[in-house]
Design brief:
It is a single chain. Helix content is 26%, strand content 35%. By secondary structure, the chain is α/β, with parallel strands linked by helices. The protein has a seven-stranded mixed β-sheet, with helices on both faces. Strands 6-7-8-9 form a four-stranded antiparallel β-sheet. β1, α3 and β2 form a beta-alpha-beta unit. It is globular, with a radius of gyration of 18 Å. The relative contact order is 0.16. The mean pLDDT is 95.
């Protein structure tokens, strides 16, 4: 997880991720699938950037769940009127339901196994209000990622510079991302390393997880950023 780099997350991703454009596209998806929606639960919310923009740009009430306590603290600072809770996406109960439940930026891959994937989708459904919609942005399926692929991202602001180098390994049905950070501030540089593991789920396994929880799902292969998007409703309720 982002145990070492949570406070640097926004700096790194601001260098290449257009949260405003993504959020506007996301709101279009949500509002078409659930006209008049008001409340959203952001599962694996990270630093709450999508949540903040949905609230500020589109007037939605957004709560969030994340496993990382630092992410939860950052999200609370951005939206103090919202509720952000530290919890595992496959085992949480907030005691309320929402017009939409979303899990973005491939965070669903962190469940790692099909069993935990199915349990997570079940928790999403349990937090869904009547007529609500679930939106999940997947990680890559098997056979797409390249073993040994490397990339470098740089974020810089206010005298702080972060260089993140990433290297990908594939281990059967797991992708393993090795992140190495060079963090420079006040003329000093420190080094931090992390390893992230995400499950590689087939289209059939993703569909199966929704079906096992009594949900009908439609799949958009492009989605918000080219990784695809699942849009699901309780069976018997049409999507769109």
């Amino acid at each position: 997880m982002y145990s070492e780099s949570a406070e640097l997350y926004d700096l790194i991703y601001a260098s290449f991720k257009n949260y405003e454009a993504e959020t506007d596209r996301l709101f279009d998806v949500l509002s078409r699938a659930r006209p008049g929606l008001d409340t959203v639960l952001d599962v694996a919310c990270g630093t709450g950037e999508h949540a903040r923009l949905l609230a500020e740009r589109h007037g939605l009430l957004v709560d969030g769940v994340d496993l990382d306590p630092t992410f939860v603290q950052i999200a609370r600072r951005k939206l103090p009127a919202s509720r952000f809770v530290q919890a595992d996406m496959s085992d949480f109960d907030l005691g309320r339901r929402y017009d939409a439940v979303m899990c973005l930026f491939s965070s669903i891959g962190y469940v790692r196994t099909v069993d935990r994937l199915t349990r997570a989708i079940g928790r999403f459904r349990e937090h869904l209000a009547p007529g609500g919609v679930i939106v999940v942005e997947p990680w890559f399926p098997p056979g797409v990622m390249t073993y040994g692929y490397t990339s470098t991202d740089v974020g810089e602001s206010g005298g702080l510079r972060v260089v993140r180098r990433a290297r990908t390994e594939i281990d059967d049905r797991l992708s393993r991302l090795h992140f190495d950070y060079d963090i420079t501030q006040n003329g000093e540089t420190r080094h931090v390393s992390e390893i992230h593991e995400l499950g590689l789920f087939t289209l059939e396994e993703m569909h199966g997880a929704f079906d096992a929880n009594g949900l009908v799902v439609e799949y958009d292969p492009t989605g918000l950023i080219g990784r695809g998007l699942y849009v699901a409703r309780i069976k018997g309720v049409r999507v769109g």
